[in-house]
Prior knowledge:
Elements: H1 2-12, H2 17-24, E1 39-47, H3 49-63, H4 74-86, E2 97-104, H5 106-109, H6 124-133, E3 139-150, E4 153-156, H7 162-177, E5 183-186, H8 195-207, E6 211-214, H9 219-225, E7 231-234, E8 237-240, H10 244-254, H11 258-265, E9 270-274, H12 277-291, H13 295-305, E10 308-312, H14 327-340, E11 349-354, E12 372-374, E13 386-391, H15 411-418, H16 442-445, H17 449-460, H18 469-476, H19 486-499
Parallel strand pairs: 5-6, 9-10, 9-11, 11-13
Antiparallel strand pairs: 1-2, 1-3, 3-4, 7-8, 12-13
Amino acid sequence: MVYVIDFLATTSKPDGEVRSFLRQNNYIDESVIDEDESTKLSFNVKVDSAYVNKVQQSFEDESKGETNVITNKAYHRTLNNFINTLVEKDYDFEKSINSKSIQLNQDVLSSVSFEEDDVTLFDSKVMFFTQASDNNYFIIKESFDLIFEKDGQALHLGDLSDGEYQLLFLYSLIDLFDSENTLFLLDEADSHLHYKNIEKLWNVYDNAKGSIITTTHLLDSITKSGIERLKVIEDGQIKSGQELIHLTKRLKNLSEINNVKFQAISWFKNVVLIDDENDWKQFKLLVKRKLANNIKEELNIEKKLGNFCIIKCNSGFEGKGKEIFADKKLSWLRNFSEYIHGQPFKTKNIFLICDRDELPFPNIGTDTCSLLVKGDNINKVNSNPKSHLLSWRRREVKHYLLSHTALIDNIENIESELDLGDKSKLVSNSSCDNTTCGEYNDKLAIIKSDIVKNIIDPYINDGDQGFCSVMAQEYVYKIPKEEISEDIVNMYNYLVGENE
Length: 500
């Protein structure tokens, strides 16, 4: 059908994408009234004896008063007119017709009356050719050929490159079927296309009246589509492109070029570098448990935190020798800043959230956000975006999952393993942020990560499958609000405060 819809698009839509494509490539001649004078559709037609018998039976049934007969259908009325006009005048379906060649141009096509009835879903011409070529019923599909003639030279549709052929087909679909009520479902429609043609195709997509859902594996399409419209298919699930961890994983499979990933990231207003994307999920659960009292408030928190692009980037600070705290994140920041320098970008804030690791406890700052290490603009290449270096006051986010109530079934063994002592141990209905002396609970903050992981992982990990959001949510919601540290609130307020 690609031959038919290309032909119908150029002959019926002089201001359409197909005609524009053919005109720009100098493939056709046009009249002064914008008719396509040179594109021709050729094919073979036939009427077999089986259809003749059906028509004759229909005549008999109609003479007996039947009205629901094939001779009253739009398809047959068009077929009758088509044959009488182009094949055999006064043909009355008393005999079959052997295969005959037909060639249509815009002028010849206009001489045929294409009928409609109550079941006509699309343009009457499209409906007729679709029905007539189904199972070679009247038109023999294999005989289709589309010819563009220009200055005495004939160019067949099959002579076009794969990319031109595909682009022309996509343009035809848009020209013929686009409307406010149309949903196009396209599977890798950009394959085989030159990058310049991909840009043209996305311009057409953007100007379509209807809605378009398309899959792609091409970086050019990913960058042209707009990050807010991206969805990533991963393990059979649809995930938002806003969760850039999913997108960057796919980009890594497609290309190792960091600039491509940086370009995608630069579309986001707020970017968070965090040691693991699961840390962000745990943080969100803790925020919602601590601050939300109903579903509406949870959704509001989810909406606010959903405005952040999450990038996995390790800290790896062991506090030895000349190590620089957050060195890997700072390196990422420098590379990103160098990339966007002189480039258009939308990023306003970059938050480097670090595990505290071996950073000495007294060095933790006490700025507006009590978790803040250094909150001024640490980006030395550009003043914009603003960059924020942050750290959990406890060693890492998993330390905030330690809860007397949630772990009550095994609390004695756990407290023995934690070895916190009487003044620092987990307490029911207390966040344990402060000791009795009013100082920050430094013992709880510096427990080795592997100890905490051994305690918490069985509650939030599904065996070999790793982190499980469902299990983590069930566990977090066993923690009383009073046992969740104010550090979580402070981090949340700092992030959303800078975003507002």
